[in-house]
Amino acid sequence: MNLSEAASLLHSARRVVVMTGAGVSAESGIPTFRDAQTGHWARFKPEDLASPEAYWRDPEMVWDWYAGRYRDVMAATPNRGHTLLAELERRKLAEHGEGAFTLVTQNVDGLHLRAGSRPPLELHGNLTHGRCETCEHLQPLPKADSFTPPPTCEVCGGRMRPNVVWFGEMLPEDVLEDAQFAFERAEVALVIGTSSQVYPAAALADVALHRGGTVIEINPDTTPLTRRASFSLRATAIEGLAALMAESSEPE
Ligand SMILES: [Zn+2]
Known about the structure:
SIR2/SIRT2 'Small Domain'
């Protein structure tokens, strides 16, 4: 398969699923978890900041870390990759109706929503909400510049934890099921900016392949998925999406 064939399939597909990873947010300057570990935080192992055990030991420290990452995210803006995906979503929904487009993300920054996408399936939760430790209620965090953690649940008054999936925790089951369903039904699955080394990105791509779907990967580097993908584009998210979507608007 070549670029123009991939673009043409994307253009005509009636059901599209997109999985995004850190590479999509990198172009907004969002540091990865490890890249964000500078200064004071450099001496911690990731699991010392992002695990139920760490939170149990020192909730204030863990909240300090997440409050900092929340401020980073709110200071960033969505990039052209995010807006191209929002545009693709609008186009597919307009042409083929509800169910024609599903966005799944491993990112926790909320940038897809801010770029105009419908709420994506967030496999790893998000940095923009707190989750009540007592009643599970989700609530947006206060404005980043005035936020002093921990937030208090507006329903039961309980302490809230960051609404992200930590090391040693399961992915949210309902979100994973919806993602699996979308990959099963997809005519075209786009896998963008994820190393495909961490479950479930590669496994979901395989679900689409086994069901006869076309899997298009966009990544500047080769990944474990590259050899199995129907087509793999060595490009950043923005370059890759621009190429696929520009080609696909040409007459067939
Ligand atoms: Zn509560």
